[in-house]
Amino acid sequence: MDTLKPDAANYQRLLKHYIAAQDEQSLYGAEQISKQFIQNNVPPEDIVNLHNQAMASLYSDMPAYFRHSMNFLLETMISYGVMLQEYHTLREEQSELKSEIAVAANMQDTLLKTTTPDMEGMDIGVISVPAHQMNGDYYHFVTGSDGLLGVAVADVIGKGIPAALCMSMIKYSMDSLPEKIMRPQTILENLNRVVERNVDDSMFITMFYAQFIPSGGTVRYSSAGHEPGFYFNAQQNTFEELEAKGLVLGVDPDTNYQQYERVLHQGDMLILLTDGVTECRQGDRFIESQEVLDVIGRFSHLPAQEMVDNVYKHFEWLQDFHLRDDFTLIVLKKV
Amino acid sequence: MDLTIDVTDADNQSTVWLSGEIDAYTAPQLKEALVPLTTSEGHQVIVDLEDVGYMDSTGLGIFISALKSAKEHNSSIRLKNLQDRVLRLFQITGLDDIFTIDTAIWGGNK
Amino acid sequence: MGLLSCVTINNEWDIVKARQLGRECARDVGFSTVDQARIATAVSELARNIYLYTDSGQLCFEQISHTEQKGMTLVSLDDGPGMDDISQMMEDGYSTSGGLGTGLPGVKRLVDQFDIQSEKGKGTEIRAVKWTR
């Protein structure tokens, strides 16, 4: 190890000085040399050996017992040296894995990107933040030539890569459906069959699908076991949970979905979310549904996008900037 | 977080007592303990969730696995004493119509 | 020390004999103090595997002096159960008798060349070579 030689001379010089003076400066020097050793991957047994040689060099009358004791210590350090090498290998592997996940996350972003439509008569705000590198929440907008707006929100159970792969499957399935003419309940029924055939025993997906017909302000929706959204009644200034019961996707291929309908008047809002919003915790305490609504209500006078951004910031702060689950919130306001 | 699992076996029946939280970390443990119990034909598996204060969707996934296994092997599974929060999860997801769930206790957050 | 010398490993004390013989051989070849210690540790791990997992086996040492660079070969031979999955045994952190820093992956890091032949039911042969610097 050639890099060891200048270090060896340095080490000996500092050692000699420290033995004589026991000064802090020499110890600081030792700290610097130590960093160099680490940078050059010098294993601990080499350092013990270096010390032994330095001492032999400085003290010709070194007692045999000291030399023996250092050799004993050297043997003890060998396994530590091996472990250090393994640590380096593991760190490299970890770094590679992180890069791979970053690539996958990027691909996911590209493949699943959906643009928030600019729709007359509707103000739309969207925020979707993953808890880790890959997002297990999925949302999707589709617009028809007759002004029809379709919106889907889904939550794939599990996190990370498996959830994201599941999501790709949903996206491609939906791409192949003539969404613009299908009713929400039919869309869910179709998806359910696809999911059930293709996922693991313990996986399932929750989804909420809504279709807006802007001309009359009607919205039709169905839910597959998804976290209930809310309807905001502008005139009464009240929130109401969107009742829409249905079985999660992927469990029973023959299940049917119920479809519901509502009329939105000016100022009314439809709020869709995933359980990353309602399962927020403040420390050990779960927040209650009412609190979620209070926060949303607080920002309801703002344009939809500002509204969701502010709501997110509040919950991010509440959880100490540490999301437990992917957070998705969509607000559709009739203007 | 943490999950304790106690199982008592009788002739035709096994009772599983759960305590703690069922999430992505503890779910594998639950799967390992629960699913094998459903593989004997005619066997009844009862899961008591009285002391489960929190369960997330990964936990639900495990119960779904167990239910599917029970259907496949002709055994049965029933859940009892669900806390409010946990019951709500089964209700929202529509799984309360698929699972046999006995008396929920009221109380919520422990 | 001859070209090839061996130690039969039947009990734990034989591990110590193997270490000693290995270190002496290394010294004869001209390895540094630290490398002698590394070789002794590698020998120890190999001998320990024989002791723990087989009825009996041998550890042999051979000097390499015909090449420009000097070195030493360690050979571990046993009639034990053999290994099902060699790549799993060679994974860092996987060890039936320890954790990081031990086991066959550890031996591999202490030497320069490492080769293992093992078949279930047919025993194991491990050859490790270390060169002087």
TrEMBL record, chain A:
Q: Which UniProt keywords apply?
A: Hydrolase
Give the residue spans that cross the bilayer.
none
Highest taxon above the source species:
Bacteria
| The UniProt record lists the keyword Cell wall biogenesis/degradation | no
- Is the keyword Hydrolase in the record? yes
Against SUPFAM superfamilies, the record matches this protein to: KaiA/RbsU domain, PP2C-like
**Which InterPro entries does the record cross-reference, listed alphabetically?**
Bact_Sigma-Reg, KaiA/RbsU_helical_domain_sf, PPM-type-like_dom_sf, PPM-type_phosphatase-like_dom, PSer_Pase_RsbU_N
Extract the Gene3D superfamilies matched here: KaiA/RbsU domain, PPM-type phosphatase domain
| Location of the PPM-type phosphatase domain | 123-334
Region forming the signal peptide? none
Which protein are we looking at?
A: Phosphoserine phosphatase RsbU
Originating species: Lentibacillus halophilus
TrEMBL record, chain B:
Gene3D superfamilies (alphabetical): STAS domain (3.30.750.24)
Domain of life (superkingdom): Bacteria
Q: Which gene encodes it?
A: rsbV
Q: Which Pfam family, any one, appears in the UniProt record?
A: STAS
What's in the keyword line of the UniProt record? Phosphoprotein
- What is the phylogenetic placement of the source species in the record? Bacteria, Bacillati, Bacillota, Bacilli, Bacillales
Q: State its role.
A: Positive regulator of sigma-B activity. Non-phosphorylated RsbV binds to RsbW, preventing its association with sigma-B. When phosphorylated, releases RsbW, which is then free to complex with and inactivate sigma-B.
Q: What is this protein called?
A: Anti-sigma factor antagonist
What family does the entry list? Belongs to the anti-sigma-factor antagonist family.
Give start and end of each STAS domain.
3-110
UniProtKB/TrEMBL annotation, chain C:
Where do the Histidine kinase/HSP90-like ATPase domain residues begin and end?
35-128
Which key words are in the record?
Kinase, Transferase
- Species lineage, top-down? Bacteria, Bacillati, Bacillota, Bacilli, Bacillales
Q: Which SUPFAM superfamilies match?
A: ATPase domain of HSP90 chaperone/DNA topoisomerase II/histidine kinase
Q: Which organism is it from?
A: Lentibacillus halophilus
Recorded hits in InterPro entries, A to Z, give: HATPase_C_sf, HATPase_dom
Alphabetically, the GO molecular function entries are:
kinase activity
**Would you tell me the protein name for this molecule?**
Serine/threonine-protein kinase RsbT
Q: Which Pfam families match?
A: HATPase_c (PF02518)
